[in-house]
């Protein structure tokens, strides 16, 4: 009897674990989630006047921080991170950087990440998908 209960317990654990992993998806919407983390892959670059770093096979790991409106962007290939960037919703499933312009913006949705961010003579770019 103890062995049957133990087997049933292990099976229940496997089912719950499987469902937990199955509920995570690349289609998570950064707009409607209290917690968001996703990796976008594609073309990224950084230039600060003395350093020029770019690749077509880079990645950006995006996380929503506790404030609910600010996001962090961790770049691959030694490109410095962008942290604490504030966003507002634009449409149903898109976020745009607060204070963005045509020459400096970050736009993110569940499939695409577009960055042209200029600050203090430094320029970050990304054209990535999930």
Automatic annotation (TrEMBL):
Keywords: Signal. Residues 1-22 form the signal peptide. PROSITE patterns: PROKAR_LIPOPROTEIN. This is Lipocalin-like domain-containing protein. It comes from the Bacteria.
């Amino acid at each position: 009897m103890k062995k049957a209960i133990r087997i049933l317990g292990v099976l229940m654990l496997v089912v719950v674990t499987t469902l937990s992993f199955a509920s995570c998806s690349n289609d998570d919407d950064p707009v409607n989630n209290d917690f968001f983390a996703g990796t976008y892959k594609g073309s990224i670059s950084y230039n600060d006047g003395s350093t020029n770093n770019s690749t077509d096979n880079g990645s950006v790991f995006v996380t929503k921080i506790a404030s609910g409106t600010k996001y962090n962007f961790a770049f691959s290939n030694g490109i410095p991170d962008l942290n604490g960037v504030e966003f507002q919703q634009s449409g149903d499933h898109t976020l745009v950087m607060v204070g963005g312009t045509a020459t400096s913006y970050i736009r993110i949705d569940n499939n695409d990440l577009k960055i042209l961010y200029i600050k203090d003579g430094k320029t970050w770019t990304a054209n990535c998908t999930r």
